[in-house]
Amino acid sequence: MYAGSAMAGDGPEEKKADIVDLAVETEFLSTLVAAVKAGDLVGTLKGDGPFTVFAPTNDAFAALPDGTLEYLLKPENKDKLVEILTYHVVAGEVMSSDLSDGMKAKTVEGSNITVHMNGQGVKINEANVSAADIKASNGVVHVIDQVILPPSK
């Protein structure tokens, strides 16, 4: 269903990486890292938190309609990029054991995401969670297979 973090352990631990450093160290999140940098969100996501980040993979960004990612990464579209990225972040640390079917969570962007649970796994809106409970020093990351978009205002 989903995998826990290899970083979580019961013994003495080295200082865990923060959410940004964790993403930088994860090759399949490199597009997310580029987007976070373009949106000037590095400082925020390196902050104290805690944060819960639903992190889309490189394949999730690649699945966006042609030209969408390039459009979002342009400096003049930074506000739209930040809106989308902050829709993937919830204040506080939400572990998979805290989730329930139909649960709604308010994102930093201001809109709600919805959790769907069934025998096949966990979804955030329509995105499948492929890895859960990856602990960082300032929160937790859950990897998802789609870029989720906030509702139109």
In short:
The protein is an alpha+beta fold and 153 residues long.
Description:
It is built from six helices and seven strands; from the N terminus they run αααβαααββββββ. With 153 residues, it is an alpha+beta fold. The protein has a seven-stranded mixed beta sheet with strand order 2-1-7-6-5-4-3. Strand 4 and strand 5 form a beta hairpin. The longest helix is centred in the N-terminal third of the chain and has 9 residues. The chain is globular, with a radius of gyration of 15 Å. The protein starts with 18 loop residues before the first helix and ends in a 9-residue tail after the last strand.
Largest beta-sheet characterization: 7 strands, mixed
- Percent helix range: 25-40%
Radius of gyration computed on alpha carbons: 15 Å
| Termini separation | 34 Å
The average pLDDT score comes to: 90
User: Which runs of at least 5 residues are low in confidence (pLDDT < 50)?
Assistant: 1-13
Query: Would you report the number of β strands?
Result: 7
* Shape type: globular
Please indicate the percent range of residues in DSSP E strands (runs of 2 or more).
Answer: 25-35%
Order of helices and strands: HHHEHHHEEEEEE
Give, in spatial order, the strands making up the sheet with the most strands.
2-1-7-6-5-4-3
Structural class: alpha+beta
Total of helices: 6
